[in-house]
TrEMBL record:
CDD domains: HTH_XRE (cd00093). Keywords: DNA-binding. GO terms for molecular function: DNA binding. SUPFAM superfamilies: lambda repressor-like DNA-binding domains. This is Transcriptional regulator, xre family. The keyword Secreted does not apply. Residues 8-62 form the HTH cro/C1-type domain. Coiled coil: none annotated. It comes from Persephonella marina (strain DSM 14350 / EX-H1). InterPro entries: Cro/C1-type_HTH, Lambda_DNA-bd_dom_sf.
Length: 159
């Protein structure tokens, strides 16, 4: 059975934070975070609330392991969405993710398989970077071609 320290460690790793970074974000010492994760101490109620509020994690889950890990929150339309859905929305604003890839990501997210989730997300980001570079290169090339055509037309007119 997981304890609070293990859940804090799970949360920290999901967020991709070192113990030091996690401690800084909540205004606690590195030693405090280490003590929690190594089950040498238990954070007090106010610290648990602070962790919950800072990272959007469900306080009940943090205390007991029961319920969903993440607190549901509202987008501008008032519809409840989870952090995963926000991530997908943000990526889709840049480059549309195929639905099959989105489903695979969601499966790993729900299973809390952070390593595979991160690997797939990294590949998506690389693909977006490549696609963006190609689009930029295409725009540059079309501008060069237009400039060459203008030069050619100007040259013919001046002849």
């Amino acid at each position: 059975m997981e304890n609070i320290g293990q859940r804090i460690k799970q949360l920290r790793k999901m967020l991709g934070l070192s113990q030091r970074e996690f401690a800084e974000k909540i205004g606690k010492s590195l030693r405090a975070v280490q003590n929690w994760e190594y089950e040498q101490r238990t954070p007090d109620e106010s610290t648990l609330r602070l962790i919950s509020q800072t990272f959007g994690v469900n306080l009940d889950w943090l205390k007991t392991g029961e319920g969903e890990m993440w607190v549901k929150d509202q987008d501008k339309s008032g519809v409840s969405i989870e952090p995963f859905e926000k991530l997908i929305q943000a990526i889709n604003r840049i480059e549309k993710i195929p639905s099959v890839v989105e489903k695979i990501l969601k499966d790993y997210y729900e299973k809390r398989d952070i390593e595979e989730f991160t690997n797939i997300l990294s590949e998506i980001i690389k693909e977006i970077e490549i696609t963006s570079k190609v689009k930029i290169d295409n725009v540059k090339n079309s501008q060069i071609i237009k400039a060459e055509k203008i030069d050619e037309i100007t040259y013919k007119k001046n002849k």
